[in-house]
Amino acid sequence: MEKILSIENLNKKYGRIHAVNNLNLEINRGNVFGILGPNGSGKTTTLGIILSVINADSGAFSWFGNPNSKEDRKKIGSILEQPIFYPYLSAVKNLRIICDIKGVNYSEIERVLHIVDLFERRDSKYRTFSYGMKQRLAIAAALLGKPEVLIFDEPTNGLDPKGIAEIRELIINIARQGMTIILASHLLDEVQKTCSHVAVLKNGNKLFSGKVSDVLSISDAVELSSNNLELLSLVIKEFEGTTDVNIEKDLIVARLKAGTTIYDLNYFLIGKGIVLTHLAERKKSLENQFLELLTENE
Ligand SMILES: Nc1ncnc2c1ncn2[C@@H]1O[C@H](COP(=O)(O)OP(=O)(O)O)[C@@H](O)[C@H]1O
Ligand SMILES: [Mg+2]
Question: For ligand 1, is residue 40 a contact (CB within 6 Å)?
Answer without folding.
Answer: yes
